[in-house]
């Protein structure tokens, strides 16, 4: 089990993280459509960080990257967490700007430093949670040739905070991986499986696949639960969309199905039906 995650710039780990705040963005734009819809807001001096945020989001969606970045930077400097998150993801992906993980790291850090857990702004909950996961990932891997060095202990803290306080499935999966591999602290299979199950139950595809793989083969001293494993592997296989990134999921599923008995498949189907009913 390799603990090295892919480069954050590709946003592989932020598939969910990049999608979570989109709802917030659309809600923001819908709630303030009268202001955001007026193009004059782009040309005039920004009256508030909030106005700059709305202008920046609108410009970015329309393809005006330069004015969008300027507006978002103004909003970020004014403490708008959503602007800080948007800039972080833009630089992490190199979306309309040169790829720059250091700038992404700095904007994600601003979100964390600006978060007041005693008086949280729940409008920004998903943005803050995503920032903790991002900083955890950067801390785990480091950024080559920069001051951001690998710091597994800090990564563990970041993932644990997001997993515990926000119930973030990606954080739970990352935390599980660290416990299972003994990275950032002592190996703890029991804790690893606990967090892995929580992430899998939330629909985290990689968590479902890893949990299924472990249960099917009885890894880490587990008693094999092949039918239960097939349920998790089936859920992961159905959700696997990226043929390249998710090939390992497809391979594990195919191997398990090829060696499972007819009885195990029938029981797995029953488990799957119960799981889907509970989720609905």
UniProtKB/TrEMBL annotation:
UniProt cross-references to SUPFAM superfamilies, sorted A to Z: HCP-like (SSF81901)
Keyword Signal carried by entry: yes
The entry's keywords: Signal
Pfam families with a match to the protein in the record: Sel1
Signal peptide: 1-17
Domain of life: Bacteria
SMART domains named in the record: SEL1
Entry keyword Signal: yes
PANTHER family the record matches: ERAD-ASSOCIATED E3 UBIQUITIN-PROTEIN LIGASE COMPONENT HRD3, SEL-1-LIKE PROTEIN
Protein name, per record: Sel1 repeat family protein
Natural source organism: Methylocella tundrae
């Amino acid at each position: 089990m390799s603990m090295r995650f892919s480069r954050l710039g590709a946003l592989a780990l932020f598939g969910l993280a990049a999608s979570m705040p989109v709802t917030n963005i659309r809600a923001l734009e819908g709630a303030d459509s009268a202001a955001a819809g007026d193009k004059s807001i782009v040309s005039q001096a920004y009256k508030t960080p909030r106005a700059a945020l709305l202008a920046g989001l609108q410009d970015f969606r329309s393809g005006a990257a330069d004015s969008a970045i300027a507006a978002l930077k103004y909003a970020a400097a004014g403490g708008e967490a959503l602007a800080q998150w948007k800039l972080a993801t833009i630089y992490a992906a190199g979306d309309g700007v040169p790829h720059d993980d250091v700038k992404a790291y700095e904007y994600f850090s601003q979100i964390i430093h600006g978060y007041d857990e005693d008086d949280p702004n729940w409008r920004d909950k998903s943005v803050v949670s995503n920032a903790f996961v991002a900083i955890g990932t950067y801390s785990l891997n480091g950024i080559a040739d920069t001051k951001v060095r690998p710091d597994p202990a800090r990564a563990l803290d970041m993932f644990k905070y997001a997993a515990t306080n926000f119930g973030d499935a990606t954080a739970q999966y990352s935390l599980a991986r660290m416990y299972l591999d003994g990275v950032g602290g002592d190996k703890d299979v029991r804790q690893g499986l606990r967090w892995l199950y929580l992430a899998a139950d939330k629909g985290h595809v990689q968590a479902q696949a890893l949990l299924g793989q472990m249960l099917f083969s009885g890894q880490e001293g587990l008693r094999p639960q092949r039918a239960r494993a097939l349920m998790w592997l089936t859920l992961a296989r159905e959700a696997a969309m990226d043929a390249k990134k998710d090939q390992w999921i497809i391979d594990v599923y195919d191997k398990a199905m090829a060696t499972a008995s007819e009885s195990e498949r029938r029981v797995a189907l029953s488990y799957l039906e119960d799981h889907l009913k509970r989720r609905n």
